User: Fold these one by one.
Assistant:
Number 1:
Amino acid sequence: MSTIPEEKTLDNSLQLLREGFPFLHSRFQRFQSDIFKTRLMMQNVICLHGEEATKLFYDPEKFMRLGAIPKRIQKTLMGENGIQTLDGEEHRKRKAMFMSLMTRPQVTKVANLAADYWWSAIGKWEKMDQVKLFDEVQDLLCRVACQWSGVPLPEKDVRKRAQDFGDMVDGFGGVGPRHWKGKKARRRGEKWIMEFVEDVRAGKIYVAEDTPARTILFYRDTNGKLLDTYIAAVELMNILRPIVAIATYITFGALAMHTYPECRQKLQANEDNYAELFVQEVRRFYPFGPFLGNRVRQDFEWRGHHFKKGTLVFLDMYGALHDPKIWEHPDDFRPERFRTWDESPYNFIPQGGGDHYTGHRCAGERITIEVMKVAAIFMTHFMDYQLPPQDLSFSLVRMPTLPKSGFVMRNVRRIQIPV
Ligand code: HEM
């Protein structure tokens, strides 16, 4: 039996907050190993890295989500007892419901809505002195998310709701005020969506047949019952919030176009589906989620190491996207690398790995890609803009992170399509 390299420490939680995204990576380097043990949140944690480890991590016989997601994350980012915390048959059935919302026609619907809102947003931005892309795209995507889902969103509430969804995401890596802000935003959001759930179920609000809201609100669980009001709200928010969160990737995409002007030119030509390669590289290159958690379901051995039932196990997401064993010159921004990518579900994991239907991999990956493509095309085909001096750097310590200025543009002009 081999011993897992171990960091001798009482607890490393504060160190994780101090180091941010590179926390796991620097230890894999130090131990020269794809596995090590540390202590976080006052418990032993085994940390794993690499493609083989990702295959292991997504084996439902060996791992479960029960008890793997800290309450502080549930109280900000994702809500309590939603799909992310389920295992077995209950997870499989509920995931099938989510995946039924991700068909090609539904994804196209979302992308078309995004295009409509981009077109009108550019008209609005033309009249503004300066435009902070991140905030504006959050608003735009909040409109898209609500319209697609069937949730009414009065115009006066757009900023408030978009900001709240943003704060829920921003709260996941924060302590103190940032965490409290995330919690408050979640409570407000849950109140809003729970009232909506009750009104729809009481027949006071009608939602159309083919909308995600109807699917989620009238979904019957493994015991044949409707989800209770709170869980239904959590699950509906599990599609609203992450659509708004795509604003982070879109802002990083704008940064990439600015930093690598040759990519901007290639987007303008958009030959051989270049926009798809570009957005994949944005999802690989820029940081969003640091790692994922699971608990050992039952004792097992892997590569001579013992995994004890109940142990918390983290999978290195950020490090996997920058691993030279997987990506040649990982610190170069090279969209073309995705032309020859083998499409393995275990080596490119910005939104989780494994199978979308049977595992916990992100249900909205295709929506994310298509909405990012719409943004990349609009920013290179249908608008001109200038950048005033600003701080576009981003911290690797803060989780989640963003270009500090939020990407401020001036002199936005709509480019008319020649007829
Ligand atoms: C799960 C990231 C967009 C819906 C996840 C997971 C990650 C993730 C890391 C967990 C994977 C795992 O546990 O193995 C992201 C990022 C997004 C994004 C970075 C873009 C900014 C979306 C969108 C939707 C969505 C647009 C829906 C419209 C979900 C759902 C789950 C999930 C329902 C839970 C899946 C499960 O537990 O089975 N996402 N996501 N996400 N995501 Fe996303």
Number 2:
Amino acid sequence: ILHRAIAIDGPAASGKSTLSRLLSQRLNLIMVNSGAMYRAVTWKVLQRGIDPNDREAVVQALREMELECGVADLVSTIKVDGIDPGDELRSESVNSHVSAVSAVPEVRECLVSLQRDYLKLGDVVMEGRDIGSVVFPETPFKIYMDADPSVREARREVVGEVDSVAARDRADSGRATAPLKIAEGACVLDTSGHTIESGVEAAIEILRGQG
Ligand code: C5P
């Protein structure tokens, strides 16, 4: 496990996806978007008309769904019961309920195991909230990305997502199981004043120092 995973954690819209994609291309690593996995479970729960705040019902639904994780062109893919939810993963309803579903310990246990399985397919750069703290605590390569709240809200608006980033971050940071936090050994990268290119350069500098 040790040198095969780069963990990128941080709040919503801190630039994790952009950085992970560019690192994946530059270092030839599989990019795994762990948030998409939590979103996929949430999507299915909502599709079945299950109350996302009803933990027992969510766990039951989880047991009944078939999750298939894969890779296409070095990017993680996910299907639920044979269907790729596509853009629906980023819908308003998924945005507003994903924090409740991802706070359920059984959901996390199941998805963390699928996330670790990616190492069977190759080296990874994985982004999320608990990658450095829970999924790959042994990796030396850990970056915690951050940016000013106003910068993060503005980034969300650019991509057309108007959910309250702040509410999701509060829920993700305050939950009992695997809350968003700076993992032991992680280096904080604040991207507020960075361009995409300078952010990538800064990240590579950090990773060099950690290796
Ligand atoms: O990264 P993204 O914003 O797509 O993640 C959506 C949600 O999934 C987060 O707000 C969080 O509730 C959950 N998540 C998580 N642990 C991860 C990745 C995402 O709890 N490793």
Number 3:
Amino acid sequence: MTGENRHIGKPVPPRHHDRLVRGHGRFLADLRAEGVLHAALVRSPLAHAAVVGFDTTAARNDPRCALVLGPDELAERTAPIPTVWRLPGQPEDSIPLAARTARYAGQPLGIVVADSPTAAEDLAEAVRLDLDPLPPVPTLADALAEGAPPVVPGTTDNAAGRIRFGSPEQDIASAFSRAALVVEREFTLPRVNHAPLEPRGVLAEYDPGTALLTVRAGSQSPHAMRQDLCAVLGLRADRVRVIAPDVGGSFGSKVLLYPDEAMVCAAAVALGAAVRWVESRAENFTGAYQGRGQRTTARLAVGAEGRFLAFDAHIVADLGAYATQAGSGPHQVTALTLQGPYRVGAAAATVTGVYTTRVPTGAYRGYGMQEAAFIRERLIDEAARELGMPPVELRSRNLIRPDELPHTTHTGLTYDSGDYGAALHRAAALADRPLPPNPPWVRRGTAVVSAVEISAFAPSALLEAFGIEWSGWEGVRLRINHDGTVTVYSGVIAVGQGIETSLAQIAAEGLGVPLDWVRVELGDTDTAPHSDLSAQASRALTLAGGALVIAARRLADRMTTLAATFLDTDPGRVTRQIDATADPSSPDAAFHGADGARIPWREVAHRGYRGWGRRQRTDPVRLEESVDFDPPQLTFAHGAHAAEVAVDLGTGRVTVTGYWAVHDSGVLVNPLIAHGQIVGGITQGLGQALTEEARVDAEGTPVTRSFREYTIPAAQDVPQDLVVEHTCTPSTAIPGGFKGLGEGGTILPPAAVACALAAAVPEIAHTLTSLPLTPPRVRAALRAAGIT
Ligand code: SMO
């Protein structure tokens, strides 16, 4: 290979940018479908109520109506959505399409199909719901109160199971009894909305002639959606195809099949037609599952010279009205990752799941690790303050050193590689600048925090050990076409993160061909290798990329061997010359034999397709390699973030004036995409630090229903001084050395901002245990401390 076709590490502009910017995107609402009908959902306006009546007479009698499915019809046609990740002791209860009790405001109770979106909306309103109100249980306190009404019928309390991870009780007790200092706090992490640019949507087409259901959906995991659809609708897997078109962001919100999405598919099957539903922004705020939602009591024991003796936490998780397919998962990950990048004598955490009458919670970018980082870094910060030690010094003393890796945590995670201290000190150095003089009503502060990130969520045996009914492996199919062009098929999904480009870079590098010879085909269960977790858990690039490294190496070898046969020489004597700008049809892009003989790349592909040139009759024919990659273990990315904040003592408004992030995600395939991922993650994390909270009133009715009440960061909320640097410790578990970075940016901002605010106003530091740090909340703390 000539040096021109090196692609890994190049900041190639993502391919989808040009297409989307020019308006060639094909999102769910853009797809054309013949004779498509339109659906609207009938949703519960109450947080908790028995569904006594669902009168569809008026709706059915409207000439615009094609179909109405209420609880009775749905009960005949559908089964509840299966659960894949349960807590021990979790009640046998999963989310149904046919609900006889509404357990959250916005829960879909039925579906109406009509000839236009407006008609569908009208008819959904024409359905007369008869609801018998039950007492709402909107908060964890309500749910845990003595005599609280049970959310799950037939149970006596709102417990949704419990699990404990980490050191034995006696190790924790002994560490705390020996401690020179114990810091204990209660942390409240509110629910948040994912707020993707594109809400959810489904276009389901059922062909009664072939009995094939084709579902196009804004999904982060089409294979998982297909499996769940088969279970819910009682359909055969070979008759269901799920395709994700362009997806306008997900952040964990589109990984699971939702009841409303399944109802659209049930309606398409019932009608033998095409039915589309496009979610409204208000529905997305109230009916899409939310993230976070946790109240945690945590403590840190510190010994002589500031050594960490133990972390201990009791996490109370708001699972909402149903423990969805994987509802407790993020909270379990909080427990698993509380220890973070630190060496500590003992660490343990308990997760108690609790039902409330609110929309379920689930995956959100950072998946429990943002919560863990906030709790841990605030505790450490508080310990430093009480010890009178600089927080960076306290962290530095306790960070696991590179020579101590691999290191297995008390919860059984084995960190593979990294240099946590290097990242911390680099972030601290970047943030070390003189603070400008303050007017008397402004204070400023800086903090540096640290985390490791579980990435490449796998192997399958790990998921099996956790009792998660998903696979961890990831497959790719790599094909050289008859003209020498290349197609990659993968079950991971593009949700705006640029994965198509990164995978193309890996394939092009491995085959030694120009980047634009490679097309990446994602999102279709008919062609993509199976993938349950798909683009979740910072795993798409690492695992699909790792598989692709192997596949490309094999296919490159086969091409070379074929070329050698045609050139009548040994493979070792064949060289290749492909100009980085060459077209695949270029005769100059060729293999060269020892004696000046040559054969074009496309000619090798062409002859390969004829089945010519094989050394043995049993040698494979197709120029295609399928590789299923199940790594030996998890791989851990890590990072340190520094925030500089200014707080207005009069208004309580916190402004982030500078932000510096140092990440290690191993080998970066595309630094431009990596930068965008980290900046996007930081921005999202700043929203959770400062403004975002999904709220309900005392009746459990959502009050954050639009971007008026729910404020996400805008450009002016992101500091101009936002610096991202990368260090590179290659993963030893992943071919190519990649580590994940999709979630990394999101994990640390709340911890960084809260600790920086604590540095600015030490008088209120001990109260900075709840998010978001809104002006009213900060002002109240300032007042209580007698500062304003
Ligand atoms: S929160 Mo993600 O989709 O693992």
Number 4:
Amino acid sequence: MTDASLTIDPAFSIGTVDPRLFGSFVEHLGRCVYTGIYEPGHPAADESGLRRDVLDLVRELGVTVVRYPGGNFVSGYRWEDGVGPDRPVRLDPAWKSIETNEFGLGEFMTWARAAGVAPMMAVNLGTRGVQEACDLLEYANHPSGTTLSDLRVKHGAAEPYDIRMWCLGNEMDGPWQTGHKTAREYGRLAAETARAMRMIDPGLELVACGSSNAEMPTFGTWEATVLEEAYDQVDYVSLHSYYEPKDGDVTAFLASGAAMEAYIEDTIATCDHVRAKLRRSKRVNLSFDEWNVWYLSRFQNDPPTEWAHAPRLLEDHYNVMDAVVVGSLLIALLRHADRVRMACQAQLVNVIAPIVAQPGGPAWRQTIFHPFSQAARYGRGEVLRVEPVSPAAGEVPALHATAVRGEDGTVTLFAVNRSRSDALDLAADARALGDVRVLESWVLTDSDLDARNSATDPDRVRPRTAASTLEDGVLRAVLPPVSWSVIRLG
Ligand code: AHR
């Protein structure tokens, strides 16, 4: 056991958390939509084919925003295929899949309302452009009286969908993308699309594509060039990042939260550099609209070879260590909540997801469900700056932590111990909080770091009540090796 410490003081405020930090992502990919959120004929499906058991879990997860319909999928997507009575069957080159288009915008909006989430729509700037983005916006948001808006009414949606958040394409720096572009080409297209969309609906929030991840060779220059072209037209630049134990390096994997923080800080620096160069007062904020643990190398070693509808793709089965890393990624996002205003865990169901749904069978929570749901529930309010002091775990401190003060005055400490060998004996100075006590305390860990949940043992891994004490203003807790802890004070 080694010592660790930090101070919780409401005077050190980072900023207020935007609830949209707890977003998720539904892509037409594998079984996320088909046999995920949508499965007509399933015993739990409603009259629209939406799985009620999955909806219950989505609500429990605490998701606020859901990005749709991709992802790589959107860069070859024709939105018109997914509305009205005639649904063409198409090839989806992004995932070598057959898209029936049975599920489209209207179905998604029905699902989003049932789930209680706000939609974040992505437009295709890969194989399509300004006109198609404007057509989709007019169809979705214009009340009525034009051909496109009346078409939506005819399709059964009398009221406009009123979609506020829009992504201007997806990962346009990625050569794997249909319609991949240079930064200059994309920046101009994003600016033109944004300008045209705002002429139709001025109240939109628009996200420009940043780099596909921090390892892209153009990371930094891509953001700078895109923002030189589109700074005045956009509100956010996107970040995407997935983490896995590369070459079996588990210590580096456990440090993923630190890598995410460095990526965020570098992106903020680029945004603010362009702001200074252009002499603008407006700040461009960050939308971390794809993040998660993803065993990407498994997919790369075994890509799909046959065209199929709703194939089993990217169905990662998460263990305890993955959940702890997800907890650390959530801490990283919260620690930068002043600039990261929106974030989407990718994805929601079946595909690298916190929720698993079997075709015709049950749905359950993966290990990574738990840190997300706890952060989404208790990570609301004002983030307090905490600077943990602890021994190292590889290249980073073992302790990764943040604290959030809710509107009701309660304070929640989120803490991850990244050490694989040592428990941390945490002493947190909470004197500045006044007369508070420990309300609740949980830990997610296991002697078997490879333990997972399954259909037969769906609650094998979950947060369990832990012992924490608060005496003379000092909170004490033992954080086991590779663990995620949540301690509420009030
Ligand atoms: O979430 C899986 C894929 O990862 C998305 O389609 C793409 O945007 C990213 O590369």
